[in-house]
Specification:
single chain; 301 residues; alpha+beta; 7-stranded mixed sheet; 4-stranded antiparallel sheet; 7 helices; globular
């Protein structure tokens, strides 16, 4: 394939991905962002560890066509790995997990980064398991597009934003996570894709464990622009349900809907994001968070 044809196909793919991004909310949204939602029981133990704790990043797993109860059991199994942090009475919240449809398909990571929407969208480990299998990744990073690269390339290049270190740091009252974003950026340059510097914050793990409000502190973050900044702590309204964005017959379970105030733009690397989480709505952002999340964004380990 000559360079000119490859470039033109890259532009076509960019247009397809832009269309898909702009229509993803329309395809998957059924509940408006301001819809009432229940208070979720706080799931953390009363006293958190006073020493630094290294937390394993669990690999993605397959969720396709599993019964809803089995998905719940999988979630509980992963949460049970962290008794120093989460109560042994934990149950997945109905707000976050209750809309999952029994024995449905799920977007696969190969579907997102190679096949695109359609029957092969479920190929590879289920992409939502990046978060379901890592409950202490209270806030993570995620693309907001699907990229059907199979149209122009035979190479499965799964360069999604990857967390590779997660620590509990008691002196900061923070979970610190290190992400490889540089490899993800190179993927966008390689295929001439749009919006390579924009990502979404995925915070339904925080909501499921009882942290209901989130704020991004700009003064203690660096090289990051917050798109649609609210100026106050916002309620987390992300959850899982059946949607049609994957294009698989009958739809697939997926996170629904994207909060516009959870989108970030990375100016350059390395970058840092400081996030505060609260159980209850704080009077203002000067109120000390119940927990902090610090994201260090850079290259691979």
């Amino acid at each position: 394939m000559n360079a000119r044809l490859f470039y033109l196909l890259g532009i076509l793919l960019s247009l397809i991905s832009i269309f898909w991004s702009k229509n993803r909310d329309l395809l998957d949204s059924s509940v408006p962002p301001e819809a009432p939602s229940p208070k979720i029981e706080f799931q953390f133990v009363p006293e958190l560890p006073k020493e630094r704790v290294s937390i394993e990043i669990n690999p993605m797993i397959e969720l396709d066509f599993k019964a809803k109860d089995e998905v719940f059991d999988i979630r509980k199994k992963y949460v049970a790995k962290y008794p120093k942090f989460v109560k042994n009475t934990y149950q997945p919240s109905q707000y976050v997990f209750g809309r999952i449809v029994d024995k449905a398909a799920w977007w696969g990571i190969e579907g997102l980064y190679f096949y695109g929407p359609g029957k092969q969208s479920i190929e590879g480990p289920s992409e939502e398991s990046r978060f379901i299998a890592n409950p202490l990744l209270l806030v993570g990073l995620c693309e907001f597009n699907a990229y059907p690269l199979s149209a122009i390339s035979g190479r499965k290049d799964l360069s999604y934003p990857k967390p590779f270190n997660l620590f509990w740091e008691p002196e900061k009252l923070a979970f610190t996570v290190k992400y490889d974003v540089k490899t993800y950026f190179r993927y966008f340059v390689r295929y001439n894709l749009p919006d390579r510097d924009q990502l979404d914050l995925i915070s339904y793990n925080a909501r499921d464990l009882g942290f209901e409000y989130l704020y991004i502190f700009p003064k203690t973050s660096s090289n990051v622009e917050f798109l649609n900044p609210p100026g106050k702590a916002v309620r987390i309204t992300q959850f899982l349900q059946l949607g049609s964005s994957c294009g698989y017959p009958g739809g697939g379970n997926n996170m629904n809907f994207e909060q516009n105030n959870m989108r970030i733009k990375i100016a350059q690397l390395p970058a840092k994001i400081h996030i505060g989480l609260w159980r209850d709505q704080p009077a203002d952002i000067s109120t000390q968070p119940d927990i902090n999340v610090i994201m260090d964004l850079g290259g691979p380990e």
